[in-house]
Specification:
15 strands, Rossmann fold, 5-stranded parallel sheet, 434 residues
Length: 434
């Protein structure tokens, strides 16, 4: 432990980052920017080649920072998993999606563990960052490694910890470097080494008592948001029944300086965290015969929002004596949140697909997403022009990107259904808000 700690302190330790996506690449670039030599691992040869050419593909990494790190010889990438043995510290940042029936899919973690069983060596620090259910680090990573190396003792020969990623794509203030880092190890020695490593590039670092505690920190954070967004969505439906403006009420409630935090309704949940992470906890608790009712009810509300939006579109068209089947609907925004190009779990795609199945002619504009797959077909983003807006029976705002001329939308669209309150402050036009 002492030798590894000294090499971390002196920045001589080689850092490995497994999985070079939205979490892994910003972390790898940060370590390199702070003076560490970093070797990134990914199953995509295209990604590895791009990094080795100094080409960036993640918005939250500055192009010039990535190129500078590569040119300085501090950052490189590979698909050769045998090189895991070269690294002294490894951060594992692979996806953890849900299966079709909302059960955890740990296949990416399991694939990494298979490689670690072949190439991990004594003296390494292994940190899992992928969001998962409580107990994964101990049961799915530490236990298999020890089974293959019965002579090892965790905290003496190998060091294992969990540190939840806290990436918020496009956040203008909080990036990897200045978002507090939580770490919990299998032993106190594991926790201390992980704390030391991350403290060299991130401030502050908060330690917790175990890997399971660290795993649950992430699940609490995103379940909290999931549940509160579900209430905002249900409250929006309540307000519509009562004929009042939910957005005005949220704005007024936000004037209270204590005891209230604003959450906003929308067409559903999207992204790599909020719709998925609570299901990991719910799955674990069902296995223990303890149903997590808040998560289950929140999931029902949030999962039902795309269907609710479709019916809102149908009602709005009906008021103009226009049938949904055969109508032309222009959708503004397909990314799961504003100002990103990420369409993972995007509720916009669910809304668009259901409208398409019901016979509507769907098109879209998104300044961040050039094309999507919908119903087995590739669709390209339209240029947002007055003619495009006026030629549509209805404009449906699904993502509230900055930089879109919403006043032009209000001036030229026949009818707007706004699920994000993006049209606030515009004048003219017929606008129906969620």
């Amino acid at each position: 432990m002492k030798q590894l700690a000294e090499r971390i302190e002196s920045r001589e330790a080689l850092i490995g980052v497994v999985g070079l996506g939205y979490v892994g690449l910003p972390l790898a670039e940060l370590f390199a920017r702070k003076g560490y030599k970093v070797l990134g691992f990914d199953v995509s040869s295209e990604r590895a080649a791009m990094i080795n050419r100094g080409k960036n593909y993640i918005d939250d990494v500055r192009d010039e920072d990535l190129k500078q790190a590569v040119d300085a010889g501090l950052l490189s990438a590979t698909t050769d998993m045998s090189r895991l043995a070269e690294c002294e510290c490894l951060s594992i940042c692979v996806p953890t999606p849900l299966g079709k029936t909302k059960e955890p899919d740990l296949s990416y973690i399991h694939a990494v563990v298979v490689e670690l069983k072949k190439y991990a060596r004594a003296g390494q620090l292994l940190v899992l960052e992928s969001t998962t259910y409580p107990g994964t680090t101990d049961d799915e990573m530490a236990a298999p490694l020890l089974a293959g190396h019965p002579e090892w003792e965790i905290g003496r020969d190998i060091f294992i910890a969990f540190s939840p990623e806290r990436v918020d794509p496009s956040n203008p203030v909080y990036k990897t470097e200045n978002t507090p880092k939580v770490v919990g190890g299998c032993t106190p020695a594991c926790t201390e080494l992980a704390r030391l490593l991350y403290s060299k590039v991130i401030s502050p670092v908060h330690t917790v008592s175990s890997t399971m505690t660290a795993e649950l920190v992430k699940l609490l954070e995103n379940t909290y948001r999931n549940v509160n967004i579900a209430w905002a969505n249900e409250f929006a439906m309540i307000c519509r029944k009562l004929g009042v403006d939910v957005w005005e009420i949220i704005q007024a409630a936000s004037t209270k300086p204590f005891g209230f935090q604003a959450f906003y309704p929308g067409p559903g949940l999207g992204g790599h965290c909020i719709p998925i992470d609570p299901q990991y906890l719910a799955w674990k608790m069902r296995a223990l015969n303890f149903p997590s009712r808040m998560i289950e009810v929140s999931d029902q509300v949030n999962s039902g929002m795309p269907h609710y939006v479709v019916h809102l579109v149908m009602e709005t068209l009906n008021e103009q004596a226009i049938a949904l089947k055969g109508s032309n609907i222009a959708c503004l925004g397909v990314a799961y949140k504003a100002n990103v190009d990420d369409v993972r779990e995007s509720p916009a795609l669910d809304v668009m697909y259901e409208l398409q199945k019901r016979g509507a002619n769907i098109s879209f504009h998104d300044p961040f997403v050039p094309s999507i797959q919908l119903g087995g077909q590739t669709m390209s983003s339209h240029v947002l022009t007055p003619d495009y807006l006026a030629g549509s029976d209805l404009v449906l705002v699904l993502t509230n990107h900055d930089g879109v001329d919403y006043q032009m939308v209000a001036s030229h669209a026949r009818q707007v259904v706004d699920t994000r309150n993006a049209m606030r402050g515009t004048s003219g036009g017929s606008i129906v808000r969620l």
